[in-house]
Specification:
285 residues; mainly beta; Thrombin, subunit H; 6-stranded antiparallel beta barrel; globular
């Protein structure tokens, strides 16, 4: 995990012998059997060892959207050479080969330009993975993909939903249990979902580039934390942002997701997708 002062990127380091070195999650997440297009990505070092894991979203049968700090190995922007993406709801229980086998592989990874969180609010925290083969080669049951919000969609949505009514859906493979500190956490590689709400789109740390979310909204809803990195901020089945960073190591208070509903980010995603770009469904909210 890479830190700058009190901001913490959400990726989870991997400990191959016994699970994940992750942090706390907040709220009451539930098992997510609905968003089959949300997957868990493992990223590998040049020597083939597993580095860290994140969440992300299928936009087509081969294009997987995640965070920039997920596809990179350091704050110099070094892109990981390979990745492997899993779509089981409970990877821990269902994939005995994890993290060295199973899933769908990729050696085509792209970063929008992420070089650490020192440039908040403009962190360029978006990444794209193009799978080596269609997801159905390993997961024939997957037949749905997320849509990509058109430019300015979050502004329109927030304007039409004042206060705490601008709710969004979170999905990802974050930490499930914690005692509320960094000293004891229980991490599961399960896809979980919850609702949160948009606090704002501008102001400190947001600046029009990030969406500010509650990580502890109450009312049975949840927030974002480590392992959720790159996971979608959804309105319906439309991606509007990818989970990026929280303001402290206990994942309390507020979190931030990097917006994907801007012209420049959309152009990056489409360019990275190559021949698959025409298959990405774009929706105006």
């Amino acid at each position: 995990m890479r830190k700058t002062v009190t901001t913490v990127a959400l990726a989870s380091a991997l400990v191959l012998a016994g699970g994940t070195a992750a942090q706390a999650i907040t709220g009451n997440f539930t098992d997510d059997h609905e968003h089959e297009y949300v997957g868990l990505a493992v990223f590998y070092n040049p020597d083939g060892t597993a580095s860290h894991r994140c969440s992300g979203t299928l936009l087509t049968d081969r294009v997987f959207l995640t965070a920039g700090h997920c596809v990179t190995l350091d704050d110099q922007g070094t892109v990981a050479p390979t990745a492997r993406v899993y779509f089981e709801q409970d990877v821990q229980a269902e994939v005995s080969e994890y993290p060295t086998g199973g899933g769908v592989t990729s050696d085509e990874l792209y970063s929008y330009g992420y070089t650490g969180l020192g440039n908040i609010p403009e962190t360029k925290d978006v990444g794209v993975i193009v799978l080596d083969a269609p997801v159905q080669t390993a997961y024939p049951e997957i037949d749905e993909y997320a849509s990509l919000a058109t430019a300015g969609s979050l502004d329109s949505y927030k304007d039409a939903h004042p206060g705490n009514s601008a709710t969004v859906t979170i999905s990802g493979y974050g930490v499930q249990e914690s005692n509320g500190s960094q000293t004891k956490q229980v991490a599961y590689r399960e896809r979980l979902t919850a609702e949160s709400f948009i606090i704002g789109l501008n102001g400190t740390n947001a600046g029009g580039y990030n969406v500010k979310l509650s990580t502890n909204p109450g009312g049975g809803r949840g927030g974002t934390c480590f392992g959720d990195s790159g996971g979608p901020i959804l309105i319906g089945d439309t991606v509007t942002a990818v989970n990026s960073f929280v303001m402290n190591g206990a994942c309390a208070g507020t979190g931030f997701a990097y917006r994907t509903d801007t012209d420049d980010v959309i152009a990056f995603i489409l360019e990275s997708a190559g021949d698959e770009a025409g298959e990405i469904d774009r929706v105006t909210l």
